[in-house]
Amino acid sequence: xxxxxxxxxxxxxxxxxxxxxxxxxxxxxxxxxxxxxxxxxxxxxxxxxxxxxxxxxxxxxxxxxxxxxxxxxxxxxxxxxxxxxxxxxxxxxxxxxxxxxxxxxxxxxxxxxxxxxxxxxxxxxxxxxxxxxxxxxxxxxxxxxxxxxxxxxxxxxxxxxxxxxxxxxxxxxxxxxxxxxxxxxxxxxxxxxxxxxxxxxxxxxxxxxxxxxxxxxxxxxxxxxxxxxxxxxxxxxxxxxxxxxxxxxxxxxxxxxxxxxxxxxxxxxxxxxxxxxxxxxxxxxxxxxxxxxxxxxxxxxxxxxxxxxxxxxxxxxxxxxxxxxxxxxxxxxxxxxxxxxxxxxxxxxxxxxxxxxxxxxxxxxxxxxxxxxxxx
Length: 376
Fold this sequence. Notes:
The chain has helices at 111-115, 118-126, 151-159, 170-182, 207-216, 230-233, 263-269, 275-285, 294-302, 313-326, and strands at 52-59, 74-78, 81-83, 87-90, 95-102, 131-137, 141-148, 189-196, 219-225, 306-308, 330-334, 343-351, 361-364, 367-370. The protein is an alpha/beta fold and 376 residues long.
């Protein structure tokens, strides 16, 4: 598998939309703004060029999508160094989507609802030019349908999902989906949508490995969580980090049996989760994140989102919401300059404040990790 940065000059080409601040996510692909030139990706070249792209979702305080921003409204930083935005677009490049469904016996009561989502995926997510692959997993990852632009085939593959065994090789299947997406043509947007519980039972792949490879392949992961407790609904927003009663690097209580004691694990035991630090650790060290919602971490680490569902009828609305966001996202691309070629890279996207609305919520992928060159 590839351990290098995103290669080739593959730009994101998303159509610029005519809509106003605070508008809700549209149900499908946006038409181009009249008189606006559409930036096309440069032709492939055979020299190594590191092109970093990130999806950017911008919402107004009330939650509506902000669709009238221009390239000059954005600033992007790589490890604190401001970068030149080389590519900018909104919501229009064709999608390559890997649909990943859990079919283990755990989700048997929800299987009828999963089968009904096929037409929603094709109409609300893919759009006319999109294509998709369908994967399923229990104790075995399965590719039910390779990438196809035949929407009827896609819908049938979802409709025919079959109940499997109790196993759940979630990470192995996600890694397979990343591999399939990495083979898609570069101008297409690469998206994985996982409809599953946040449970893995014995994959060879680690969550950190999946997220690292997804970042390097410019894959954005969205998740529809099938099993979430009521406690998560009542979960409070992230609190400020509690003051440690012991000096930094020391711990005032014994570790959890069977675990390695680190500052991150202690923060988690105290009710504080630094998702940035946790993602950085598991991606750099190719580890799992035991005790956390792994699907939420995968989404956070790639610029997507997790939508938890509690009733059958909410699964279809979750898929529609993901489709609406995908067709209302900005794409920013840059060639990293002034930063180390290896190691962890933190991406920060800022939107210039406007007098009419200066409290915008901006979401993008948090970064990527480039391992050092392999020694012979």
